[in-house]
Amino acid sequence: MRKKMLLGLIVVVAGCQAKDNSNESGDQISKRTRSMTRPGPFKDSPDSPDSPDSPDSLDAANESTTTGSVAVKFAAGAEGSPLSPRYSPPGKRLELKPINASESLGVDEVDGLEAEIALGWPIEKQKPIKLLVTRPAAGEAYNKLFIDNDGNGVFDEDAIVATASESRGNVWSNFSATVKATYLTDVAVTEDYPIALWIAVTSKAEQPEFIRMSRRGFKTGDLSIGGEKVQIVLSDSNNDAVFGEGDWWELRTVDNTVKGDGSRSIGDFHWFGESAYKLVLDDAIGNVGRLESFLPGKTREQDALDRDPYGADRKAVKADKPLEFRHDVDGAIAEAVAKQKRCFIKFETTWCGPCKTMTQYVFTAQEVVDASQDIVCVKVDGDERRDLVERFSIKAYPTGILLAADGTEASRFVGYQKVVDMSKFLLQKMTK
Question: What confidence tens digit (pLDDT) does each residue in 229-265 have?
Fold first, then answer.
């Protein structure tokens, strides 16, 4: 029988910036029996105290098998903090519509474009926040951002100014701003919501159709587990300033000696040591929640294996030599047509993570190398060959295109492909 580790969990303080050296404990841990209405492999009755699958209790003085929970308070994390998440959700696309910038601002600004974003809870009752971008002159990049934070139809006088830069074949204008999110609870609450916004166009003279927005901020709550100070990092996953199921959370020690499992969705569990915990939020603002012990029904080692998206690809038998790619697309297509062979074109970039992972695990697998026999393979850097990106209508990376023996497109994939899927893609029968 596995010997239980007794873990004490007490609230220490809320917020990343605050420090409290007192020994004052937080709320007393409440105990509740498992409920089949909550997510997870819970059972109808508590486990036997002797069961090796019983969870370590959140209460150091309690060895029962009931689920323990403790209240957690969250506060805004400090900008630049090492706890700041190293990931952000995909940018939300905000449509830009032309308006008279001079009339809106009362100043001489050129080519005004307006967008709107709704933030807070409930999202359908929020009054949109208006954004306005302008440029100094026709033909120049859009470099000023004005915000109507008060929702009164008047934009803030001070503009956020960006310096346009060129990268990956586009001209970028990046802005950092803080807007207001409103929560219509019993008493309306307004909170700061730090965001990043950016415009990407192929040339400075181009008028963009949209601006993208993504959250910058995050929240933290401080706890102690088994005598170790830990922090929960909470962040928005879909840029709506509403915190709940599907948003992201992390659990790690304050000194970063234990960085935990990385980001997981609220509703999913985290490990600390060999014990598992879930975070339950009590409000849409993301300021109050509970950390609960959880029975995952598996060991931490097995859980890691189950979650590894590349596990099977890592273990795939490696070829003596990886799949060989040519670099001359037109020459490769011409050769394939002349020899009545199929042609596989792989579009990638130097900054594409999944592309690199496929190079490491998929195109080195014996199964994929074998499947590529009698196929002319060629790869393209999408940043270097914008002409081919347009010609083949490439929208994302990696993208793979399989041409029939007559040079016409027969099939394509977008996104990471596992070894087994890549083999099937290359071995598929042509209808042409």
Answer: 899 999 999 999 999 999 999 998 877 766 678 889 9
Coil, strand or helix at 341: coil
Give per-residue pLDDT as tens, 99-117: 887 766 766 676 899 999 9
Q: Find all residues with CB under 8 Å of 38, minimum gap 6, and list them.
A: none
Q: Which ranges of 15-151 would DSSP assign to H, the alpha helix?
A: 101-105
- pLDDT score for 184: 93
In terms of DSSP H, where are the helices of 237-375? 300-307, 311-315, 329-338, 353-357, 366-371
Residues 149, 156: contact at Cβ < 8 Å? Answer: yes
Three-class DSSP category at 307: helix
Residue 215 CB: number of other CB atoms within 10 A? 23
In eight-state DSSP terms, residue 127 is P
Q: What are the CA-CA distances from residue 386 to residues 141, 171, 359 (Å)?
A: 21, 14, 22
Q: Is the pLDDT of residue 148 over 50?
A: yes
Q: What's the confidence (pLDDT) of residue 106? A: 61
Encoded amino acid at 14, one letter: A
What confidence tens digit (pLDDT) does each residue in 300-356 have?
999 998 899 898 999 999 999 999 999 999 999 999 999 999 999 999 999 999 999
Residue tagged 């083949």 (tokens): 392
The answer to whether 95 and 50 have CB atoms below 8 angstroms apart is no
Query: What's the CA gap between 282 and 55, in Å, rounded?
Result: 23
User: What's the order of all strands across the beta sheet hosting 97-99?
Assistant: 97-99, 110-117, 129-135, 144-148, 160-161
Give which of 219, 192, 195, 191 is closest to 85, Cα–Cα: 219
With a pLDDT cut of 90, the percent of the chain lying above it is 63
Strands 110-117 and 129-135: antiparallel
Helix (H) or strand (E) holding 410: strand 409-414
- Euclidean distance between CA atoms 423 and 344, whole angstroms: 12
In whole angstroms, what is the distance from residue 192 CA to residue 76 CA? 9
> Position 203: which residue type?
S
**For the chain, what percent of residues have pLDDT higher than 70?**
81
The two structure tokens encoding residue 344: 């596989």
Phi/psi of residue 140, each to 5°?
A: -95, 165
Which residue, chain included where needed, has tokens 């130097």? 350
Q: What is the mean pLDDT of residues 2-22?
A: 34
